[in-house]
Amino acid sequence: MEALFEVVVFLAIATFGAALARRLGLLAPILLVVLGLALSFLPFFPHVRLDPDLVLVGILPPLLYVAAVNTSVPAFRLNLRPILLLAVGLVIFTAFVVGTVVHLFLPDLPYAICLALGAVVAPPDAVAATAVARRVGLPRRVVTILEGESLVNDATALVLLRVAIVAATATSGGVGVGAVAREVVVATGGGIIVGLLGVVVFGYLHKRTTDAVLDNALSLIVPFAVVYAAEEIHASGVVAVVVTGLGIGHKLPLLMSAASRLQVTAFWRLIQFLLEGLVFLLVGLQLPEVLRDLDEPIGSLAGITAAVLAAVFLARFVWLFPATYLARLVPRVRQRDPAPPVQFPIVIGWAGMRGVVTLAAALGLPLTLADDRPYPRALLIWLAFAVIVATLVGQGATLPWLARRLRLPPDDPVQDALSAAGVQQQASRAARERLDALAEGAPEAVVERLRGLTTSRANVAWERLGGTERETPSQAYARLRQEMIDAEREVFRAARDSGRIPEEVLTRAYRDLDLEESLLRQEVDE
Questions:
Q1: pLDDT-derived band at 199, boundaries 50, 70, 90
Q2: pLDDT, tens digit, for every residue of 323-360?
Q3: In the chain, pLDDT over 70 holds for what percent of residues?
Q4: Element holding 133 (H helix, E strand)
Q5: Could you tell me if 191 and 158 are in contact, meaning their C-beta atoms sit under 8 angstroms apart?
Q6: What is the DSSP letter of 173?
Q7: Distance, CA of 395 to chain centre
Q8: Distant-in-sequence, close-in-space partners of 56: CB < 8 Å, separation ≥ 6
């Protein structure tokens, strides 16, 4: 009962922190981490030790799944080269840079465990990248690259971490190249196979499910089932979840009814909001746990911490600029994908926030090395925690300012509206042709009403090209129809209160009016 009460308290604080962040115009992940750090100093506040397995198997899979489902597969494929350069190349490069720096400061520490720390701090956090990038309003391609990187880089880091830990704890003979290659193939290849099987199995189940509530429940099961299946064969659960999420998300319009899609989208928005808030709050609350066994002299602690932070920060920029511009020396690459403005790699480099995966991986470091040899595990956990706080609070808090100062070339809203209007025109034409083919025998008034609806939808799309100086006809319609809906609600509510209609009639009427209002608000927001 006490544990349940603590969970409710943490969720309430996370919700309050997110609401406060919106009111103050701050990024919620940063405020929640700072709030967690402050609460960790209160003696009466419960101290929670984050279980690595809970994060990697219980919290990360649903967050990765919903991020993958919402990722555009065509955009992901189009940006596959920069995504892989960051998610694979940069992670490995950063891990070796950080591992080398730590080994220089601690030469008696085996290089394998230093490399393990490098793998721990190498991947930017999927939750932080998505939350911050979209909140800041970065260009669409930058957001796609950051989200794609954050979906894949955890798998690279965790596989590298697994290999490094095996090498550090091996009692004799070390780890050969063949064993490393086998580990990588099993983890990555197995994850891809499990993920593809997940697309087939759960895609079939979604297609056969007609009840929106059952579709919702099934979508919640998917990430955990895929992770469990992958872990059973020692494959990468992260890769499996991402592959399944990308496949299901790409086919979603063909797998679910409209009611299921609306309900699943609303459900996952709530789950994502609660889990993200809880994750960042828990990261801040880990400070006492991190400091508990730390006994390094303050001078040497400050020196190695500053060196690791500098290595993490500089490695990203050292990798990014050559990876961005050297490939364009190849004529075919340059012709297919011209070099982006220099602001793009700068802001992508600054967006390397670390988060809960880094902390969970650090807490999962072995207690001893080969032959039960002790090592400064608490120091390595502290270094990982310092990287999280410095990158998330420091870089995350200044990313909006940097994006404004760099004046990134924005996405062209006119081009977006023009493309949408052109496609909507084709869609309206197809709808009218289908209507004409099936209209025989239907009342003429119904047919004319449906023709007017298709014309209205096409007009709304073209109106978005006209600017925002004057109220458009569709905006006037939305404003006036909203007032009418409010009046209708008041009549139904008064009738319920006076006993003229039962509660069920009010509920049905409110459901219909709520659906219409949500559609009106969506059209106005767009």
A1: very high
A2: 888 888 888 888 888 888 888 899 999 988 888 888 88
A3: 90
A4: helix 126-136
A5: no
A6: S
A7: 18
A8: 158, 237, 357, 360, 361, 364
Residue 130 CA to residue 235 CA, distance in Å, equals 25
Q: Is 53 exposed, middle or buried (0-12, 13-18, 19+ CB in 10 A)?
A: exposed
How far, in whole angstroms, is CA 307 from its chain's centroid? 29
Token look-up 């499910």 returns: 209
Q: Determine contact, residues 224/61, Cβ cutoff 8 Å.
A: yes
Q: What is the DSSP string of 213-262?
A: HHHHHHHHHHHHHHHHHHHHTT--HHHHHHHHHHHHHHHHHHHS-HHHHH
Ramachandran area for residue 174 (φ above 0: left; ψ -120 to 50: alpha; else beta): left
Looking at this protein, which amino acid is placed at residue 306? A
Q: Give 300's contacts (C-beta < 8 A, 6+ positions apart).
A: 105
Give the position of tokens 């106005």: 524
Please, is 170 exposed, middle or buried when counting C-beta atoms within 10 Å of its C-beta (0-12, 13-18, 19+)? middle
Q: Can you give the pLDDT at residue 126?
A: 65
Q: What is the pLDDT of residue 176?
A: 60
3-state secondary structure at position 338:
coil
The CA angle 188-140-515, to the nearest 5 degrees, is 100
Residue 98 phi/psi, 5° resolution? -65, -40
**Residues 489/521, Cβ–Cβ less than 8 Å:** no
Nearest residue to 15 (alpha-carbon basis) of 3, 39, 31: 31
* CA proximity to 194, closest of 157, 220, 233: 233
Q: Which two tokens stand for residue 382?
A: 């502290």
Nearest to 115 by CA among 158, 164, 174: 164
- Residue 261 token pair: 């899609």
- Report whether 476 contacts 455 (CB < 8 A): no
Q: Give the chain's end-to-end CA distance (angstroms, integer).
A: 45
Q: How far apart are CA 114 and CA 112, in angstroms?
A: 5
Handedness of CA 307, 310, 314, 316 (dihedral sign): positive
CA distance 481 to 446: 20
For the record, the structure tokens of 518 come out as 């949500």
Task: Tell me which residue has tokens 């081009």.
Answer: 415
Residue 187 near residue 239, CB atoms below 8 Å:
yes
Separation CA 286–CA 355 (nearest Å)? 12
Least confident of 28-32, 385-389, 492-496: 28-32
Q: Which residues make Cβ contacts (< 8 Å) with residue 101, sequence separation at least 6?
A: 307, 308, 311
Tokens of 519: 């559609």
